[in-house]
Design a protein that fits this description.
By secondary structure, the chain is an alpha/beta fold. It has three domains: 111 residues, Cobalt-precorrin-4 Transmethylase, domain 1 (3-Layer(aba) Sandwich), CATH 3.40.1010.20; 82 residues, Rossmann fold; 93 residues, 4-hydroxy-3-methylbut-2-enyl diphosphate reductase, catalytic domain (Cobalt-precorrin-4 Transmethylase, domain 1, 3-Layer(aba) Sandwich). Helix content is 41%, strand content 19%. The chain has eleven helices and twelve strands. The strands form three sheets. Strands 1-12-10-11 form a four-stranded parallel β-sheet, with helices on both faces. Strands 3-2-4-5 form a four-stranded parallel β-sheet, sandwiched between helices. It has a four-stranded parallel β-sheet with strand order 7-6-8-9, sandwiched between helices. Strand 6, helix 6 and strand 7 form a beta-alpha-beta unit. The chain is flat, with a radius of gyration of 22 Å. The two termini are 21 Å apart. The protein binds iron/sulfur cluster. The site of iron/sulfur cluster has 15 residues, from helix 2, helix 5 and helix 9.
């Protein structure tokens, strides 16, 4: 039992309210990917995912216990089902898998990620000379895959500094975004590029990302402490945390055991949010632990 229940002093100090963000946890794309994975497991085939299916280590571990195996891109593949992750995979690899008759390809690429891939493909078909800017993280699997659809025409810009340094003679610059970017970073980069180039902007940040960022921001303004739940490898969770920490004290955690009691001293309202790849069971575990700490009766 937590010491909060043993000491009157602590009960008094730590009695705080907990508020959960209106939009938190699994988005449509991640839920779809998990459903497809679980269905494939039930069919008792050999099921592989290419890299982690989503960026949440605990959920990936849960699926591994059910029988899923994670492939490295270089692995030799025999007869099996391969689930493509929500972030998508590079164009050539996708083509190679499709040709392989031994592989039952289950495409869990989020339709919103696919939409951006299709925009890049179409832009290339219309005019292969124009540059395509991707606003996003260079090493993120979604951006790596997206870049491959541009066949050498894509340039990735992560931040304003890189946008300032970007110099090309291309008449028109097309701009797309990683689906989980912040609107602020996207707008700031577009603003810089507009000063130097003629630009065509495709805002491909997905609605689930926008909703989670908006809710997190709103909540952070009204609490003393924010707990952001999700994989440390999750881009969208990390950005939620970055948004919140500009407003109030914020901790990005993965599991209930990461919580430290000392964070809650003198806190009156705690806000909780979670990235689009954070499953409900983790959010519930953490919510339970926070409630126990706070000795909450009512929200
Ligand atoms: S965050 Fe958006 S793009 Fe990414 S999986 Fe979820 S719905 Fe799809």
């Amino acid at each position: 039992m937590y010491d909060v229940l043993r000491s009157n002093r602590l009960i008094k100090n730590r009695k705080f309210k907990v508020k959960i963000a209106k939009n938190a946890g699994f988005c449509f794309g991640v839920r779809r990917a998990i459903n497809l994975t679980e269905k494939a497991i039930q069919k008792k085939n050999k099921v592989y995912t290419l890299g982690p299916i989503i960026h949440n280590p605990q959920e990936v571990e849960r699926l591994k216990k059910q029988g899923i195996k994670i492939l490295k891109e270089s692995s030799k593949i025999k007869k099996s089902s391969i689930i493509l992750r929500t972030h998508g995979i590079p164009f050539n690899l996708h083509k190679k898998f499709k040709k392989n008759k031994n592989i039952n390809l289950i495409d869990a690429t989020c339709p919103f990620v696919k939409r951006t891939q299709n925009i890049v493909k179409q832009l290339l078909d219309i005019n292969s000379k124009e540059k395509i800017i991707i606003i996003g993280e260079k090493n993120h699997p979604e951006v790596i895959a997206l870049k491959s659809y541009g066949k050498g025409k894509c340039v990735i810009l992560e931040n304003c500094q890189e946008a300032q340094n970007f110099k090309r003679k291309s008449k028109l610059i097309n701009i797309v975004s990683q689906t989980t970017q912040t609107t602020k970073n996207f707008r700031n980069i577009v603003k810089i590029l507009k000063k130097k180039h003629k630009v065509k902007v495709y805002n491909t940040i997905c609605q689930a990302t926008l909703d989670r960022q908006k809710s997190a921001k709103k909540l952070a303004r009204n609490v003393d402490l924010m707990i952001v739940i999700g994989g440390k490898n999750s881009g969208n969770t990390t950005r939620l945390s970055q948004i919140c920490e500009k407003i109030t004290k914020t901790y990005h955690i993965e599991v209930a055991d990461d919580i430290q009691e000392k964070w809650f001293q003198k806190v009156k309202i705690v806000g909780v949010t979670a990235g689009a790849s954070t499953p409900n069971w983790i959010i519930k575990n953490i919510e339970k632990k926070i409630k126990e700490l706070a000795y909450i009766v009512n929200y």
